[in-house]
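Journal club prep, notes for RB
We'll compare a predicted complex against what the paper describes. Inputs for the zinc ion case:
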Amino acid sequence: MIIDSHTHTAYSKHATGSVDDVVRAAIAVGVSVLTITDHAPFVIDSVNRLLESELDAYLDDICRARNKYAGHIKILAGLEMDYMLGARRHAESLLSTLDLDFVVGSVHYLPIDGQRVNVWDLTRLNEAAVLEQFFLSLEESVCSGLFDAIGHPDSLLRSVPVSRWRELFIPLAPLFQRYDVSYELNASGPRKSSWDSSMKCEFNGRWSYPCRETLPELLSSGATFTVGSDAHTPADVGAGLNDMLDELVPIGLNCICYYEGRQRIEVAVGKPRQLSVQASA
Ligand SMILES: [Zn+2]
Ligand SMILES: [Zn+2]
């Protein structure tokens, strides 16, 4: 049983494949619970996300696929929403109009001195102002009450050393349980490049995130976890999820979850994985 709670379609504009293509790819690789989480409309641009005018068609496509493939796969409707400091009102008003299963909030953009730094601008991520802004945004997104989970909260590890990361992240770890927000274990890390600051170059093939080194603190604080491939093409749906669990179960991960109607459904993981499913409050 594979659960994939973070996937994109062509509605995100920088991703490919229709909803139907993504669902068929998910069935082909054995995904049994699929949540489609295209990038929600946001002020920053209109070329990397859904437009407000497309939301009805997006949700209709998901609904059609849910009916068409009933009995083969559970299909859930989600959004990945951007979070920037002070952007709460935008997210709030959008969410109040939509009937979704799952909302993952992600920090992608950091306003620094009138410029915008993106979390994929690897050469800038170790700057003090960038780290400060990122952790303020992360904290505010967890405490906002808007999201079911926080997407790739540790993706800065593509550039930031783990020791520095731990220092800054550990004080925030208990907030996930306190504000009832899941921590996303995003399996796209091994598919992404990393930055070697001593060689000043980008390289591939390293596991950067999800962070293995902060899992013990998250587990002991009672955090819950979603899992997602963050696929931007049908070929990547489900990618890396089993390998990720193979890595994290031996170091203590024993339960993951997904959301249906914004309610958390917990699934035990272990050997054999994902044995039982039960709803939780
Ligand atoms: Zn993202
Ligand atoms: Zn994403």
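Talking point for the session: The chain has a mean pLDDT of 94.
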